[in-house]
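ESCALATION

Customer reports they have been waiting on this structure for their group meeting. Please prioritize. Original submission:
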Amino acid sequence: MREGIAYIRGPEVTGQVRLCQTDRGVWIRAAIRGLPEDGFFGWHIHQGWACGGPGFSAAGDHFDLEGRLHPDHAGDLPPLLSCGGRACMAVLTDRFRLRDVIGRTMVVHRRPDDLHTQPSGQSGERIGCGQIRLRR
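Update from on-call: job pushed to the front of the queue and completed.
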């Protein structure tokens, strides 16, 4: 079974996201710390290959394989729910295969995704980012 991992880093936010290819899709498990408050936060797989630049701008837009509108991008994920600044999430998706996202970026946003505004759901400032790498 192949597995990917992204170490999320930001000024306050840290965490780890694991992605595992299964027969039914990619199983994604996240554990994030240092979120600014309780509530919902957007997180997505982005097109970019790096987290550099001001506000992680090198991460680019949401990852998308087929030119779809938000929230149907391949990289759109359900919101994280923070409790005391910590969030855990597990989701299974068949929108992509693990090999499609190795090297791409995983971004955590300051606000929840509104699930309709184009192109990115108005989820606000990027507060954490990590590159998805193949876990050996």
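Sent to customer with the following note: Strands lie at 3-9, 14-21, 26-33, 39-41, 43-46, 80-82, 87-93, 105-109, 126-135.
Escalation resolved.
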